[in-house]
């Protein structure tokens, strides 16, 4: 698969690329912070160490994407689909995750401290070993005993 170069994704606060399809893109370490990426498709993409901080990712597709050690600080992931994604060590602190789906995802050592949601995210068959949650989400312990809960 050819490497896709995306020079326009530079973190500009006014940039908007709604409904773009970057399925299979190979853009590790990309700076995708402060962008309107609602409905964007990153299925099967390589996004390890990418930065999405403060971006609007409502309804984004990261199905089967590899986004190890990526940063999703203060993002809106409402309705996002990360089914089967490899997101080991990813930072989701203070993200909004209403109705997001992480079904079957690798979330080992991911940080979910301070996340908010009106309807809980789906973690069915996700690996949350060593994942960190705020103590207010301790109700998840029943379903994910290998997760870590802290103040």
Could you spell the SSE succession in H and E letters? EEE
- Given the C-alpha coordinates, what overall shape results? globular
**Residue share in β-strands:** 5-15%
Cα radius of gyration in angstroms? 14 Å
Give the overall average pLDDT. 86
Q: Describe the strand arrangement of the main beta sheet, using strand numbers.
A: 1-2-3
User: So how many helices?
Assistant: 0
- The helix/strand class is little secondary structure
The tally of beta strands, per DSSP, is: 3
- How far the N terminus sits from the C terminus, by CA atoms, comes to 44 Å
Stretches where pLDDT falls below 50 for ≥5 residues? Answer: 1-5, 10-16
**Largest sheet composition:** 3 strands, parallel
Q: Helical percent range?
A: under 10%
Report on this model:
- With 151 residues, the chain is low in regular secondary structure.
- Helix content is 0%, strand content 5%.
- The chain is built from no helices and 3 strands.
- It has strands spanning 111-112, 132-134, 148-150.
- It starts with 110 loop residues before the first strand and ends with a strand.
Topology of this protein?
Elements: E1 111-112, E2 132-134, E3 148-150
Parallel strand pairs: 1-2, 2-3
List keywords for this structure.
three-stranded parallel beta sheet, single chain, globular
In summary, what is this structure?
The chain has 151 residues and is mostly loops.
């Amino acid at each position: 698969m050819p490497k896709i170069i995306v020079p326009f994704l530079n973190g500009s606060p006014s940039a908007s690329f709604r409904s773009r399809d970057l399925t299979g893109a190979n853009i590790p370490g990309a700076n995708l912070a402060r962008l309107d990426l609602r409905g964007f498709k990153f299925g099967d993409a390589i996004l390890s160490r990418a930065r999405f901080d403060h971006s609007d990712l409502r309804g984004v597709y990261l199905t089967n994407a590899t986004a190890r050690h990526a940063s999703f600080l203060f993002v809106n992931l409402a309705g996002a689909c990360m089914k089967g994604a490899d997101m080991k060590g990813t930072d989701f602190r203070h993200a909004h995750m209403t109705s997001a789906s992480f079904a079957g995802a690798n979330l080992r050592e991911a940080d979910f401290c301070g996340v908010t949601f009106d309807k809980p995210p789906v973690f069915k068959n996700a690996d949350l070993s060593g994942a960190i949650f705020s103590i207010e989400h301790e109700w998840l312990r029943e379903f994910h005993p290998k997760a870590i809960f802290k103040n």
